[in-house]
Amino acid sequence: MQLTANFTLDELTRTTTGLPNVPNRSERAALLALAEHVLQPLRDALGQPVLVTSGFRSTAVNRAVGGVPSSQHRSGQAADIHVSGMTAMALARRIVALGLPFDQLIEEFGQWVHVSYGPLQRRQQLIAVRREGRTRYLQGVT
Questions:
Q1: Can you tell me the distance from the alpha carbon of 47 to that of 93, in angstroms, rounded to the nearest whole number?
Q2: For the segment 75-88, what is each residue's pLDDT rounded down to a tens digit?
Q3: Architecture of domain 9-139 in this structure
């Protein structure tokens, strides 16, 4: 199912866990909103592919990948993304600079960007780092 010009439901629900990962109607609607309001505008602005490494996660998939139960991936509101040739920090900063309507933006471990679109539109910006074997969240990417 094509969600936008460059994003499909399949790529936003793909998993390598082998577990069922089928969103319900409200989760599909959230994925569509994420694609329409954040991912496609980002793709259009960059003029190059935005690669989704993790989108929607069923309860079983989320558990298997070590996600927290409250993850916005569970509701279809979040995607982990990267763009070839861009650092994760450069991508995060570009999303902020474009003024895209994200809820949460996390530059994670210098590897990828977690971006969500939800009803709150907090525009929360965080950087995830590992310290002493634990994940810590620092404020701001700009």
A1: 16
A2: 999 999 999 999 99
A3: 2-Layer Sandwich (3.30)
Cα 51 from Cα 82, distance rounded (Å): 5
43: CB partners within 8 A, 6+ apart: 6, 7, 49, 50
What is the mean pLDDT of the segment spanning 9-17? 97
The pTM assigned to this predicted structure is 0.95
Residue type, 73: H
Domain limits, the chain:
9-139
Contact (CB, 8 A) for 107 and 88? yes
Contacts of 73 (CB under 8 A, 6+ apart): 54, 55, 56, 57, 62, 67, 79, 80
Average pLDDT score over the chain: 96
